[in-house]
Specification:
The chain has helices at about 10-20, 30-35, 40, 45-55, 70, 75-85; strands spanning about 25, 55-60, 65. Strands 1-3-2 form a three-stranded antiparallel sheet. Helix content is about 55%, strand content about 10%.
Length: about 90
């Protein structure tokens, strides 16, 4: 069987699921690449702010990532983030 080619939406979900496990986080440019859109259009700051305020995510100009508290709840956090994708 030939490998299944993932859609851009599937690639974005995989990027989030795998990248948030890294202590360095995910470059916003990588998320934008997989989504084929501007980062702020996909995950606007107001969508990320509740997770940042709860101490589950960190974000800077270049990347987003899970904090140690977010890493403990990573599966639920990732699923919630995927549901908020624009």
């Amino acid at each position: 069987h030939a490998p299944k080619k993932l859609s851009p939406a599937d690639m974005l979900q995989e990027c989030l699921m795998m990248g948030l496990r890294l202590t360095t986080g995910i470059p916003k440019s990588r998320i934008a690449h997989y989504a084929e859109a501007d980062f702020d259009a996909i995950l606007p700051p107001d969508a990320l702010q509740p997770f940042i305020a709860e101490g589950l995510l960190w974000a800077n100009d270049q990347a987003i990532g899970a904090t140690p508290a977010g890493a403990i709840k990573l599966n639920a956090l990732t699923q919630t983030l995927i549901k908020t994708l624009q």
